[in-house]
């Protein structure tokens, strides 16, 4: 149960002075607070014995007022320190999680769904913050304050009466221990259910257009209702177990109070204690009720904190399985060379790239074509270091690609993926994302190269037009061209277009390709596509099928071979540069891509 505090030791050590000051002031507050009943007891005795006069009344009043103001000031200091520490822990752990997420590659995000990561990064970290804030307060009250009260009761009133009232509280510890373990288990189950609901809600929001198009709203409402009812039951289970804590504590506290009154009356009748002593003792006992009752809250907080810590550690300790130990700074691009290169995804039962032999000289353009699932995107991912390297040789220049520092390699690449990743910001912000301190001139130039000028003129606010989350307010073709403009503004040494022209018409596509060829003389360009007209001007074109290169050459050479490339090119020419433009399809999806996958593996 206390393992969560041990695991948070790094934070307590880092902010040790803040917690030391909080604990010292809390301890002093406890000491001053328990003196108040002692003064009241003496005050009552003075009245009973007739010793009370004006001077004694003023003395007790001044003492009482001084203690109240002192404890108020001390309570403010420790309260601020503990609860400010809780917010600092949230900030620190969320920053740690964000850094971890940004370092992870595709295999990591295949292990965890987005909703699950969000649940752990919000609700679980909030539970840990409660442990560092309110949990530490309750821990000090349940231990330090209770111990101070017991000592004060024994020293100023009677040790025998103190022991008699404390003994009934001991069985309570066993009950709390047993039920605490059950809370731990039930809370973790409830958190997993919460993560699952989060996942499905995010998926539903992302797929809202498809859900509405297929009139599946009622089905999803029914599913969501079932999930939330299940989550309610699991959270209620946590509360059912936790609900026994407070009544148990109060019951044992009531027994202690009954013993204190009964045994205390006997001691008063025997002349061992005074009336003031009994009043002071009852006040001490009353002050002990909250720390004792708070034991139930402490157990719940620590149990939930332990479960949350395990969940957070699971995602922070997990990795993507990729290690990039290269030390060479890739200052510029060189020739790429694949020799007998073979690769298979961890989750795949078949080889995804099979004995690839390919050379791409610096400054040349490579076209990659092939049917869906032939391995186009998989080959591109080797350049992006998104998955573990395969077997065989993959060099850039005279060195293995893995010898280069991963960040320095990625800094040379401008990448436009199949799935257009746009942010819920303006057109300007999305394009300027590709280059630090990009000027409006830079942005407008990249817009011209991406053939987006006419679209921009039709937008009411121009560059300041908000495109909505994931570009929901613009068409598929517009998404693609904004993504292309973002890559071009970087003016990268390597430009990779992964089926990035599928949602534009043939004329726009040709304009973009021509613009790219004009401005990228001497720079490496890789174009993966289904529309063969996009690679007609490439220096070399390879045709992939089931991860193997089955044809290679220039456009004219491949036409002359009259193989797969020739057949597809003729079909597309006959259909009018098919696959047809998909500007009219929702989200720019082509019919053949509506298979729920679209990763081009």
Report on the structure:
It is a single chain. The longest helix is centred in the N-terminal third of the chain and has 50 residues, at 54-103. The chain folds into three domains: 3-317, Up-down Bundle (ABC transporter transmembrane region fold), CATH 1.20.1560; 328-412 and 494-509 and 522-601, Rossmann fold, CATH 3.40.50.300; 420-491, Rossmann fold, CATH 3.40.50. A hairpin with a 2-residue loop joins strand 9 (540-545) and strand 10. With 601 residues, it is of the alpha/beta class. Helix 3 runs antiparallel to helix 4. Helix content is 61%, strand content 9%. The chain is elongated, with a radius of gyration of 35 Å. It has helices spanning 3-7, 9-14, 16-49, 54-103, 106-111, 114-156, 159-166, 170-206, 208-213, 217-242, 245-269, 275-317, 376-384, 406-410, 427-432, 440-449, 453-457, 476-488, 506-519, 555-561, 564-574, and strands spanning 336-343, 353-360, 365-370, 391-396, 399-400, 413-416, 494-498, 524-528, 540-545, 548-553. The model is unreliable at 577-601 (pLDDT under 50). The chain crosses the membrane at residues 20-40, 60-89, 127-151, 157-176, 241-266, 278-302. Residues 20-304 form the ABC transmembrane type-1 domain.
Topology diagram in text:
Elements lengths: L2 H5 L1 H6 L1 H34 L4 H50 L2 H6 L2 H43 L2 H8 L3 H37 L1 H6 L3 H26 L2 H25 L5 H43 L18 E8 L9 E8 L4 E6 L5 H9 L6 E6 L2 E2 L5 H5 L2 E4 L10 H6 L7 H10 L3 H5 L18 H13 L5 E5 L7 H14 L4 E5 L11 E6 L2 E6 L1 H7 L2 H11 L27
Parallel strand pairs: 3-8, 3-9, 6-7, 7-8
Antiparallel strand pairs: 1-2, 1-4, 4-5, 9-10
């Amino acid at each position: 149960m206390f393992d969560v505090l041990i695991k948070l030791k790094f934070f307590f050590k880092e902010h040790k002075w803040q917690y030391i000051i909080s604990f010292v002031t809390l301890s002093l507050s406890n000491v001053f607070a328990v003196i108040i009943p002692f003064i009241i007891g003496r005050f009552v005795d003075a009245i009973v014995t007739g010793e009370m006069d004006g001077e004694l009344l003023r003395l007790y009043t001044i003492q009482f007022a001084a203690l109240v103001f002192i404890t108020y000031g001390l309570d403010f200091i420790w309260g601020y320190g503990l609860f400010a520490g809780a917010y600092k822990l949230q900030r620190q752990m969320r920053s740690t999680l964000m850094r971890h997420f940004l370092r992870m590659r595709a295999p990591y995000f295949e292990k965890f769904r987005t909703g699950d990561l969000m649940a752990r990064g919000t609700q679980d970290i909030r539970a840990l913050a409660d442990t560092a804030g309110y949990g530490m307060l309750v821990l000090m009250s349940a231990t330090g304050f209770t111990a101070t009260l017991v000592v004060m009761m024994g020293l100023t009133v009677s040790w025998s009466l103190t022991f008699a009232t404390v003994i009934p509280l001991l069985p309570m510890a066993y009950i709390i221990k047993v039920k605490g373990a059950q809370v731990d288990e039930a809370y973790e189950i409830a958190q997993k259910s919460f993560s699952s609901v989060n996942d499905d809600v995010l998926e539903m929001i992302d797929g809202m257009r498809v859900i509405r198009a297929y009139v599946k709203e009622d089905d999803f409402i029914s599913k969501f209702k079932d999930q939330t009812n299940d989550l309610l039951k699991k959270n209620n289970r946590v509360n059912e177990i936790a609900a026994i804590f407070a009544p148990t504590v109060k019951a044992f506290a009531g027994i202690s109070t009954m013993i204190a009154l009964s045994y205390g009356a006997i001691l008063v009748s025997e002349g061992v204690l005074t009336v003031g002593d009994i009043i002071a003792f009852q006040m001490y006992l009353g002050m002990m009720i909250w720390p004792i009752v708070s034991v139930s809250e402490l157990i719940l907080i620590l149990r939930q904190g332990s479960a949350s810590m395990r969940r957070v550690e699971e995602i922070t300790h997990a990795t993507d399985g990729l290690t990039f130990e290269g030390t060479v700074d890739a200052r510029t691009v060189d020739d790429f060379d694949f020799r007998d290169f073979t690769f298979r995804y961890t989750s795949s039962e078949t080889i995804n790239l099979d004995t690839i032999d390919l050379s791409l000289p610096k400054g040349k353009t490579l076209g990659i074509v092939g049917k869906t699932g032939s391995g186009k995107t998989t080959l591109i991912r080797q350049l992006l270091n998104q998955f573990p390297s395969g077997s065989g040789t993959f060099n850039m220049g005279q060195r293995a690609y893995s010898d280069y520092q991963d960040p320095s390699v990625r800094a040379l690449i401008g990448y436009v993926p199949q799935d257009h990743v746009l942010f819920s910001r303006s057109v300007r912000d999305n394009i300027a994302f590709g280059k630090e301190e990009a000027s409006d001139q830079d942005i407008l130039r990249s817009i011209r190269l991406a053939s987006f000028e006419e679209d921009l003129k039709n937008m009411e606010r121009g560059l300041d037009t908000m495109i909505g989350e994931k570009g929901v307010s613009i068409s598929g073709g517009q998404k693609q061209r904004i993504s292309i403009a973002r890559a071009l503004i970087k003016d990268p040494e390597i430009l990779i277009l992964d089926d990035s022209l599928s949602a534009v018409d043939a004329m726009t596509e040709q304009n973009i390709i021509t613009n790219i060829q004009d401005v990228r003389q001497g720079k490496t360009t890789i174009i993966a596509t289904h529309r063969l007209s996009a690679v007609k001007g490439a220096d070399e074109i390879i045709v992939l099928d089931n991860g193997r290169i089955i044809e290679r050459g220039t456009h004219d050479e491949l036409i002359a071979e009259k193989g797969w490339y020739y057949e597809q090119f003729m079909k597309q020419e006959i259909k009018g540069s098919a696959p047809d433009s998909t500007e009219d399809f929702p989200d720019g999806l082509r019919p053949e891509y509506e298979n729920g996958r679209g990763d081009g593996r």
